[in-house]
Design a protein that fits this description.
Number of helices: 16
Shape: globular
Bound molecules: FE2/S2 (inorganic) cluster
Distance between the termini: 40 Å
Number of strands: 5
Structural class: mainly alpha
Strand order of the largest sheet: 2-3-1-4-5
Length: about 375
Amino acid sequence: MTTFSDETRARAREIIARYPADRSRSALLPLLHLVQSEEGYVSPAGVEFCAEVLGLNKAQVGAVATFYTMYKRRPTGEFLVSVCTNTMCNVLGGQEVYDTLAEHLGVGHDETTADGKITLEHAECLAACDYGPVMTVNYDFFDNVDPQSALGVVEELKAGGRPMPTRGARLCTLKEMAVQLAGFADEREGAVADGGPGEPTLRGLRLAEQHGIAVPGFDPNTPIRSKAEADKAAAEAKAKAEAAKPAPAPTGSAVASGTPGNAGVGEPAPAERATGSTAPDVKSPDAKSPEIRAAETRQPDARTAVADAPGTKVPTDPTAPAPRDAREAQAAGTAANAPAGDGKPAGDEAGAQQRNLKEAEAGAGSNGAGSAVASETGVQK
Ligand code: FES
């Protein structure tokens, strides 16, 4: 059984500390990447480690670990080569690329070469259809590959080289990538700035430039902020929004008059009044709050009221039930689902499973029709 290193344990504490104390189970996804960064896959020991540090049971951790394909269930090579064989890449030759690599490496899907270097897998859409056929090595992209160029990449890997991806940072090992996926920065000097976006990604931006379309305040060179900077900016924006809130007005009038902004239901928004168009007015500064704009994007015709957006008034429905306090609701839910004897949530207690089986068998004996249900669910009602 693996004993995880002090470094992994320290990182686990750091990950858990990112979440509210009563929401620590949300740290499960990065923690699974973390244990994978030490062992190269999510082993039973890794599942147990996550369960232990989060106060979950192993079945709960296993259910998550087996759902996502990025969590590997057996030892994986130093380099994970994923070839997209989904529709777009497939019609452009993705399957041919996969077949060529499989034959050359002598492995099939989810199998690793004898030297432990390369694991091959076919993937379902790597979200880069405009570069198809694509493959990734440890999740870094190699665009527009064909059988020959893909062979060149794996040959270089086998020879100990690190071919440069088409976009993104230079290659690292799968374990190193798992550390990044767990939420820790790539600390290699200049790695993040290695590769810029490709032309297909920038196509929309180029078209917008050609047609003089711009989003007010958009800076394509906006640097990625540190967490402290982002937190500070969010606090400032919140304070600004609070300060901009108008004094409370008589209830009900604004919904009757509709949102967004101050436009009435029968009254078109400013851009619409001028042009008849409901598209955002990109030439004038955007006076709408991000909340209103997001709501409009989701439901362009609904004139959705946004509770705390400046200038928005939400209807008061006297018949609507009072909002339930989230903590109270959670406490009620917990009370209704008593923990098993080991103090963990019900479901993994061996005795309970046996009782369920016995009940199922008894039910099957007294009602022949119930046996099929019992065998499928383990519980006879
Ligand atoms: S189909 Fe291959 S990246 Fe989408």
